[in-house]
Amino acid sequence: METTGTHALLQLTEKTCGLCKTQGNTLRCSRCQVVYYCSREHQAEHLNAHKKSCSQVRKSRDALAAEEQKLRDMPADVLFAGDAFITCVGHFWGVIETRPYMRARSALIHALMAVESRESVQMQLEHGRDMLRLCRGDNVGIRVAVPGALLQLGRDQECYDFVKWYETTGQQGDYNWGDIEGPFLDVHDADVFEDADYVCHRFLSLCFGAGVLLVKTRLLLDLMDLQSSAVDSATRPTPAEGPRLRSSVIAKNEDILKRGDHTAAIGLLQDQVRKLYKALHSSNKYFWEALLAPEKHLHELPAYYSPGTLSEVQSMLKHFPGPSTTIQDRRLSSRSFRTLEPKSSAFYMSRHRSISCRILKAENGKQGSVIAMLSNAAKVSHMT
C-alpha cells in the first residue's frame, strides 16, 4: 500500500511473503523468481500450494529460452533474413519461424498468471508489451492481458491510454499495421473523465470494456468517498485521515484531493458507468452472469468461440486463471449500489489479479465492504 499525503492507495505491494503477506522480504523463490518469503520456514510451509504454478513457470521459461536460442541460431537464407529480433521487429508472426517463440512467450505469460504477486504481474506486463513491439498485429491476442496487469500495478492512466488507442486508432480501417515507423500506442494522458462512447459499440472487446469500466468505477468510488470525507471533516474537531484510494489518477491529482465538492464529477461518472455496464451486457449477455458466479465456468475451456457467446466469456476465464480458492459474492453497499444501477450490477473484484480484466483491491468507504470490481475476465477470488 502506498500513501499520498493523508490518503493511502490500495495496490499490490512488492516483495510480499507468499504465505503471510508481510512486505519487504528478500528471500526469493529460485525457480519461479516471482514469489518472495519472509523466512525459510514460510517458504517450506507454502511449498505444496506453490509448487504446481512454480513448476509451470519454470518449465515455460525454459521452453521460451530454448525457442529464443533456436531463433537466434537460425541461419539466414533466401526467405529468412536472419536475426529476427532485428530484422523482423513489428511483424514477427508474419515470419513463420518466429511463431513457436511467440507461442512459448504467450505460454509463459499465462503460466505467470497463476502466481499471485506484484513481481509476477510486472513480468507479465513486460512480456506482453514486448510481444506487441515484436508483432504489432498481435496474432496471439496478448493485448487483452495488458489492461488488467496495468490496473493491478496501480497504473490506471496507462490502462486507459492503452485501451483508448486500440478503440480509436486501432479501429481505423486504413491504419497500417505493417508500418513500424508509424505511430503505435501513442495515446498519453487521455482524459479519464471524458465520455466513453467510443468504447460503447457493437463489437466491444469485453477485456477493453471492462478495463475502462474499472478505471471509471474507481474514480467514481474515490470521489464519493472524498465527498463523504469532506462532509465528515467539517463536523469533526480534528481532521481525520483521508479515505483509502483505489485510483492512482485521483491519488496523484492534488487539485482533486483538495477540492471540497465533487458533485458534478460524481454525476458525470455515474452516467458513464451505466453506459459501460449496458455496453458490456449488449456485447455479451452472459458476461455479468458469469462474473457473478465464476465458479460455474472455471473448468470450461472452449478451444474456439464466437463473439457474444458464453464460450467467449469462458475463454476469457481460461486466458486469465486465478487461484482455485473459495469465491464469495459481495454486493456493493446500498449507498453505492443505488448509484451504480442497472439492476444486478454488482461489480466483482479479485484479491490478487484483474486483467485486461484483472480486478484490484478496493474497499467501499467507511463501511469497509468489499467492492466488486471488474476485470478483464479473470477467475475471481474475492477479498474478505
> Could you describe the largest sheet, including whether it forms a barrel?
2 strands, antiparallel
Shape: globular
**Unreliable stretches:** 319-384
Number of domains: 2
SSE sequence, one letter per element: EEEEHHHHHHHHHHHHHHEE
Beta-strand proportion: under 5%
Helix content: 40-55%
Q: Could you report the average pLDDT, rounded to the nearest whole number? A: 79
Q: Total strand count, please?
A: 6
Structural category is mainly alpha
Q: Provide a count of the helices.
A: 14
Estimated radius of gyration: 21 Å
Spatial strand sequence of the major β-sheet: 1-2
Query: What is the CA–CA distance across the termini?
Result: 17 Å
Primary descriptors:
384 residues, mainly alpha, 2 domains, two-stranded antiparallel ribbon, two-stranded antiparallel sheet, 6 strands, 4% strand, globular, disordered C terminus
Polypeptide structure, described:
InterPro entries: Znf_MYND. Keywords: Metal-binding, Zinc, Zinc-finger. One of its GO terms (molecular function) is zinc ion binding. Residues 17-54 form the MYND-type domain. This is MYND-type domain-containing protein. The chain has 384 residues and is mainly alpha-helical. It has 2 domains: 17-116, no CATH class; 143-384, no CATH class. It is 44% helix and 4% strand. It is built from 14 helices and 6 strands. It has helices at residues 40-45, 47-73, 84-87, 99-112, 118-134, 146-152, 156-167, 206-234, 248-251, 254-258, 263-283, 287-292, 310-319, 334-339, and strands at 2-4, 7-9, 27-28, 36-37, 363-364, 369-370. It has a two-stranded antiparallel ribbon with strand order 1-2. A two-stranded antiparallel sheet has the order 3-4. Strands 5-6 form a two-stranded antiparallel ribbon. The protein is globular and about 70 Å long.
